[in-house]
UniProtKB/TrEMBL annotation:
The organism of origin for this protein: Calicophoron daubneyi (Rumen fluke)
GO MF term set: cysteine-type peptidase activity
GO BP annotations listed: proteolysis
Record domain Peptidase C1A papain C-terminal: where: 60-292
Entry keyword Cytoplasm: no
Signal peptide: 1-17
UniProt key word Hydrolase: yes
InterPro entries: Papain-like_cys_pep_sf, Pept_cys_AS, Pept_his_AS, Peptidase_C1A, Peptidase_C1A_C
Name of protein: Peptidase C1A papain C-terminal domain-containing protein
Family, similarity comment: Belongs to the peptidase C1 family.
Length: 292
């Protein structure tokens, strides 16, 4: 079956310095995503339409967790902490890129959010800690490339940091490969738009995707439940890595959910993960998913 989908662009962001998980009192106005730059017809025209074909003979399971299907990928087990920096657009993208690179090439590496933040010149118009376009991050991976890296302590070319960002095309001191030889590349960017089956087949076939969704003040800490927005004001948009789906009994009824990895440290949510209502584009969660 051929499914035609349309690509859109988005803008997501947060704040400045130190690990978020060190916060004792969660305040979504401080750690939540702030601001959004909606897609434009020009951006859509630039990327255009994509046709995606999946094997319909493969049954979609009731539950799926990418960590179980690809257990050898270290990146899939890693919860990032972006600190007080609006870099969710880069962190979620780089972490999912690393997942998909590992799955595709059977190479157990993580990719560098810092490289994306430093070297993608049109990703973040107001600065890398003030939000950016996830789709442009993925386009950057395809056209320019992204080096290896990971969180603050990493074994790759460029580890995560939010200060002194400079695209100098150099790996950290002591790293054995050159920047140019360390570059990895992805496929052309695509957006998975408002189609649960397409999103599920993409994740179970190629690995995690990145979702941008609207954040409200009641998203402070959903714990192990299924997040359903009920009250509070909008704080803008946030980007996260989506690794699977399932359902959970809530007040006697089975509630379908997406399983996602946040980038606010392991103390947030369910050890860094959360579940959000699936199937109704809740908080626009299903309308702005990107992958390669």
């Amino acid at each position: 079956m051929s499914i035609v989908i349309l690509l859109t662009l988005l803008y997501v962001g947060l704040a400045t310095t130190s690990p978020i998980e060190d916060e004792l009192n969660w305040n979504i106005s401080q750690i939540g995503a702030l601001g959004a730059l909606p897609f434009t017809p020009e951006m859509i025209a630039e990327i255009g339409y994509k046709e995606i074909v999946y094997d319909e003979n493969v049954k979609i399971p009731e539950e799926f967790d990418a960590r179980r299907k690809w257990p050898k990928c270290t990146s899939l087990k890693t919860i990032w902490d972006q600190g007080h920096c609006g870099s969710c657009w880069a962190v979620s993208s780089a972490s999912a890129m690393g997942d998909r690179y590992c799955i595709r090439h059977k190479g157990n590496v993580m990719l560098s959010a810092t490289d994306v933040m430093s070297c993608c010149k049109d990703c973040a118009p107001n600065g890398p800690c003030q939000g950016g376009y996830t789709s442009k991050a993925w386009k950057h991976w395809n056209t320019i490339g992204v080096v290896t890296g990971g969180p603050t302590q990493c074994s790759g070319c460029t580890c995560y940091r939010i200060s002194l960002l400079k695209c100098d095309h150099k790996c950290r001191r002591g790293y054995k490969k050159s920047y140019s030889s360390d570059l990895t590349h992805g496929r052309p960017v695509k957006l998975l738009v408002n189609n649960v089956e397409v999103i599920q087949r993409e994740i179970m076939t190629n690995g995690p995707v990145v979702a941008t969704f609207q954040v409200f003040t009641d998203f402070v800490n959903p714990g192990k439940g299924v997040y359903i927005h009920k009250s509070g004001v909008s704080r803008g948009y946030h980007a996260v890595r989506v690794i699977g789906w399932g359902s959970k009994k809530v007040q006697g009824k089975r509630v379908p959910y997406w399983l996602a990895m946040n980038s606010w440290g392991k103390k947030w949510g369910d050890k860094g993960l959360f579940r959000i209502l699936r199937g109704s584009n809740h908080c626009q969660f299903e309308s702005m998913m990107v992958a390669d």
